[in-house]
Amino acid sequence: MLQLLQAEFADVTISKIRFLEAEGLVTPARTVSGYRKFAAADIERLRYVLAAQRDQYLPLRVIKEHLGAMERGLRPTPGGRPAAPENLPEPPGLPGAEDFGVYGTELKLTREELRAAAGITPELLDQLESHNLVVARGNHYDGDAILVARTAAEFAEYGIEPRHLRPFRTAADREVGLIEQVISQRRDDKTQELAALAVRLHAALVRSRLAR
Amino acid sequence: MLQLLQAEFADVTISKIRFLEAEGLVTPARTVSGYRKFAAADIERLRYVLAAQRDQYLPLRVIKEHLGAMERGLRPTPGGRPAAPENLPEPPGLPGAEDFGVYGTELKLTREELRAAAGITPELLDQLESHNLVVARGNHYDGDAILVARTAAEFAEYGIEPRHLRPFRTAADREVGLIEQVISQRRDDKTQELAALAVRLHAALVRSRLAR
DNA sequence: GCCGGACCTCAACCGCCGGTCGAGGGTTGA
DNA sequence: TCAACCCTCGACCGGCGGTTGAGGTCCGGC
């Protein structure tokens, strides 16, 4: 299992992993005799830590915070109040396609939680929904809805209203269509990669055309 | 002038600035008697350094590389070869709207330089140009063209060809139109902000819709 | 012309972060 | 039974990002 990670991250060692455990970044299960037993999820977590450290130069303290945020997004704080989204940290950086942070789609928010988390008025939320920029699934909204809503609110400060943003929705739908055509079998990793490419292309085009 | 920066970055001190100079991150001019003289550009540079350190947790070594890359983009290496774009560093992170890095639009590349930097075939570049995804201004291409071309190349590995990417161009054009409507007087900071918002909205929409 | 305060250099020092090392000891499987 | 792993725990370490202080220079005001 060490070998597994070493293929991807050259400088990982046993002692490093032990250190990361001591710092509370992973907590592998133990066998009766005290040996560490790494589940797939633990390895995933380690992969995230090592990647963040290598590619984003994040200090362990910050990586730990991110992991904490992700966890709270996934499990609504066992036995507590449903993890008031009021206290959502500011988007770590500004999330691009790679950075899932608290905006994973596994987050489930009520309408009111969404409204509060995004800091918008009910009216604005109505408008966003009527233009399909924010859509409920069943009874709740996902984490990306916060991001959409928050961004729309900032647009609003420039006098750009939800109805002006419809083309974004259309464009996004078309891109998703394109991606889905390509991915026949649901291999999530490829999907993510394509989505990241789409967002990157889009960003570069906007910036390039804006400069002209 | 120290006070100026301290307003924005609480923990900056004289000794810290001296240290940054020793590390080669700024090189203020000197008066005859040896006192440091900070030009506006120096302060801008310091601002960049401090922001990168505080907000992105980047180590000084990396910040220095970024600054170096930016410089080489702006001035084609006085008296040397035109700063072979072959050696362009991998995109620091993956550039979102905020991260200009080496992809500033001030970079000027010949067609061949662009091709090499993006690692694509001349044929692909032809296709990109015929669909207006990459456009020359005068005789050269800007830094974003690299990013567009590189991303298109990755799409190509999935069987998505330039002609499938036209909708991206259209969408980007529409967004730019929207932004330009709002910005009557060319205040660049606002323009950037709106562009960042556009890209963010777009990314969130794609991700959200993909998850359904 | 001289005093106080701000600036300079340079070397020494510092605290924290991210680990590594090794001693001493248990576990496992051939 | 023995080699090869695994464990813990404390000591140690190198580098990064500065800070401190001694010793000296520069400038404005009186």
Characteristic key phrases:
DNA-binding; homodimer; 2 strands; 9 helices; two-stranded antiparallel ribbon; 212 residues; mainly alpha
Secondary structure blueprint with pairings:
The structure is a homodimer of 212-residue chains.
Chain A: H1 2-8, H2 14-22, E1 29-30, E2 36-37, H3 40-56, H4 60-74, H5 111-118, H6 122-130, H7 143-156, H8 166-182, H9 188-210
Antiparallel strand pairs in A: 1-2
The structure holds a DNA duplex (30 and 30 nucleotides).
Write a structural description:
The structure is a homodimer of 212-residue chains. Chain A is an all-alpha fold and 212 residues long. Helix content of chain A is 56%, strand content 2%. Chain A is built from 9 helices and 2 strands. Chain A has helices spanning 2-8, 14-22, 40-56, 60-74, 111-118, 122-130, 143-156, 166-182, 188-210; strands at residues 29-30, 36-37. The first copy, chain A, has a two-stranded antiparallel ribbon with strand order 1-2. In chain A, a hairpin with a 5-residue loop joins strand 1 and strand 2. In chain A, helix 3 (40-56) packs across helix 4, helix 5 crosses helix 7 and helix 8 crosses helix 9 (188-210). The radius of gyration of chain A is 20 Å and the shape is elongated. In chain A, 34% of the residues are buried. The model of chain A is unreliable at 74-104 (pLDDT under 50). Chain A binds a DNA duplex (30 and 30 nucleotides) through residues 13-16, 18-20, 23, 31, 33-36, 53, 59-61.
